[in-house]
Amino acid sequence: MRHNAVLRVVSKLLMPPIMLFALYVQFHGDFGPGGGFQAGVIFAAAIILFALIWGPRDALELFGHRGLERLAAAGVLLYGSVGVVTMLRGGNFLAYDFLAHDPHHGQHWGIFFVELGVGLTVAAVMALLFLLFVMRGRLHD
Question: Where are the domains of the chain?
Answer without folding.
Answer: 5-135
